[in-house]
Amino acid sequence: MMARQAAHGAATGVPCGPTVEFKVHFRNGDRGRKRLRRGVAPMPRPVEPGRIPRISRLMALAIHFDRLVRQGAVRDYAELARLGGVSRARVSQIMDLLNLAPDIQEEILFLPPTSGRDVVTERGLRETTAETSWARQVRAWRSFGSNLARPDSK
Fold first, then answer.
1. What's the total number of domains in the chain?
2. Res. 1 pLDDT band, cuts 50 70 90
3. According to the model, what pLDDT value does residue 100 have?
4. How confident is the model at residue 148, as a pLDDT?
5. Which domain covers residue 124, as residue numbers?
6. Residue 98 belongs to a domain
7. Is residue 42 situated within a structural domain?
8. Using CA atoms, how far apart are residues 55 and 152, in angstroms rounded to an integer?
């Protein structure tokens, strides 16, 4: 009854009693639910322009696929290919990124956002992933990536 009177008063402009006002905002809660919070919403972090390079996403995917196989969630790369709707050869190409030296993998994961064509491609790295020596891989990466803008260099 009180809610109806308050709504009626707000609609007609006639005061029905005291009004309490305060700022609120919504936050993501458990299981995707929205939670009502008091106060002004925090400022969102600024987003760098551009997109995550495809090679960075493929590297993360290879790491995730490797974890699925190791945990037994999928039997093998062939099952990953069937589930992903791609060829076994394509899954092998993506998984070959795990053959890179750990330093190179880390640099690939943290490449800066790009716009336009990606400088580093999976196809461009195939010869490097086939190299068995991490030292030779690193030398090849340094010569290949010498023109890349690394996030830690200004």
1. 1
2. very low
3. 97
4. 57
5. 54-145
6. yes
7. no
8. 19
Residue 73 has pLDDT above 80, yes or no: yes
Q: Are 52 and 117 in contact (CB under 8 A)?
A: no
Question: Cα–chain-centroid distance for residue 75?
Answer: 25
How does DSSP assign 126-153, residue by residue?
HHHHH---HHHHHHHHHHHGGGS--TT-
pLDDT class of 14 with cuts at 50, 70, 90: low
Question: 106 lies in a domain?
Answer: yes
- C-alpha distances out from residue 150 to 22, 43, 58, 105, 146, Å: 46, 28, 18, 13, 9
pLDDT of residue 152 exceeding 60: no
**Looking at residue 12, what is its pLDDT?**
65
Look up the pTM and report it.
0.65
Do 144 and 124 meet the contact criterion of CB atoms below 8 Å apart?
yes
- Residue 102 forms part of a structural domain: yes
Give the CA radius of gyration of the chain: 26
End-to-end CA distance of the chain: give it in Å, rounded: 65
